[in-house]
Amino acid sequence: xxxxxxxxxxxxxxxxxxxxxxxxxxxxxxxxxxxxxxxxxxxxxxxxxxxxxxxxxxxxxxxxxxxxxxxxxxxxxxxxxxxxxxxxxxxxxxxxxxxxxxxxxxxxxxxxxxxxxxxxxxxxxxxxxxxxxxxxxxxxxxxxxxxxxxxxxxxxxxxxxxxxxxxxxxxxxxxxxxxxxxxxxxxxxxxxxxxxxxxxxxxxxxxxxxxxxxxxxxxxxxxxxxxxxxxxxxxxxxxxxxxxxxxxxxxxxxxxxxxxxxxxxxxxxxxxxxxxxxxxxxxxxxxxxxxxxxxxxxxxxxxxxxxxxxxxxxxxxxxxxxxxxxxxxxxxxxxxxxxxx
Amino acid sequence: xxxxxxxxxxxxxxxxxxxxxxxxxxxxxxxxxxxxxxxxxxxxxxxxxxxxxxxxxxxxxxxxxxxxxxxxxxxxxxxxxxxxxxxxxxxxxxxxxxxxxxxxxxxxxxxxxxxxxxxxxxxxxxxxxxxxxxxxxxxxxxxxxxxxxxxxxxxxxxxxxxxxxxxxxxxxxxxxxxxxxxxxxxxxxxxxxxxxxxxxxxxxxxxxxxxxxxxxxxxxxxxxxxxxxxxxxxxxxxxxxxxxxxx
Lengths: 341, 247
Ligand SMILES: Nc1ncnc2c1ncn2[C@@H]1O[C@H](COP(=O)(O)OP(=O)(O)OP(=O)(O)O)[C@@H](O)[C@H]1O
Ligand SMILES: [Mg+2]
What we know:
heterodimer; A: 0% strand; B: alpha/beta; 32% helix; globular; binds adenosine-5'-triphosphate
């Protein structure tokens, strides 16, 4: 009984990611002991929350069985909108609200096109990737605008001793998303919708509404994270978040989120995102040419998915073996009974 | 079995872009009975039960449930009245646990904002185990993902779910498909148990030998029509086989 519990925990893909995380961290630490110095942790953890927030949105959407390739572009469009609105004389908090609602609107349009026309979200959001990026560049008017210091950026990125305020915002997002996904009935519907849309809707779940919610949440979180990045570097760049869509999917997948929907956790996606950032830092600190980062990331994606699959399969085999043994026992005991009779 | 009709359909017709899948089908189903609905591939069995379960609307015709006319707009409406359907293709989410599956769409929640709330996981786990025990299905833990169960156990979980939510009518579309003999017997025992607990079941199959032993009534379909509707006393395996083969 207890054994089974341990096995079922070991079978969870985010746990194998966590093990991999420890191994990689140890490896880089051996290569350069400054890797885990407060200074380096401060640098890495200063930027990681932004990526974790995007990865959380992507992970939830992928669990519901859909994709969003436009997060990188939304990551740039939302803060650019905020900055330009402030330059137009709109009050900062109102500009922030309007900017975030652009993220929500993009999520809604992604969901609407995907669900209304029954096309793959891969295509709908690929289109949006280009559209939103183009809008961002147009919004700059050809020249990146200066950062308006009336925006309350310290509230989001203030540098404490080791961590930035963004870490606490990220923890807040993760806690709310985690409770929603793992503890609420809405979370149950998200897993059911991604696991088997047909079965879920036959049980009365409005699967399109569930997916729409996830699209909107993903767009909102991508915009929110982009805002934090712009607030941190105090410069709205039209190229911000370039290729972030692939990196976020990578983070989710490394953390055990399934490409086919219905499987994954917030914790896994967060670990995946952290792992990517420390990998980048580790490669730099080990004095390896930074160009190797992408090769490292590529290998990490493949290795982690292979490893996850292997761990899950091994766990399943153990369970099947247990079942078979128990059935044998059943047969034996019924034989004994017959013998007694 | 009582003499009241729990479900009555009159002159149902359904077209699928040119295919006339149900032709003037009328049917009466008695309370607390087991009805075997048999017919070859494409006979229209699934179409009929999709209409009874609210998944599709008939193009013409009427349905009466416990004497009152009903027009279902969704499966949820039918479920709320107590008509639960187990589809040919599983109605379980493979990666989710047994307990989560039993409560999909009907989770017990602590407090709620609109329809969203925090799930009472412990209560649901316990209720799930009780529901499984009620159908004599003894599984190790409510946390086991459904994809680790055998086909027969999965059907058992679905039946336990229907029982837990006090269904009056349980429709099973080919519940014994792809099951071994041993597993098939398990499912048949579940269905027999339902009758004792006052649940009417409609058992769809194209394998007569599965449903014959447990059915009270047999209904044969071919090409969208009902070609026979017989009480078990009035028929035999040979006659039914003949009807099935020769339509
Ligand atoms: N969604 C659909 N669109 C078009 N035609 C359909 C659809 N569903 C069923 N049909 C057609 O309606 C007819 C009846 O199909 P139905 O699924 O009800 O048969 P069945 O008796 O359940 O068969 P089986 O034993 O193979 O499950 C078939 O000719 C089928 O091709
Ligand atoms: Mg069918």
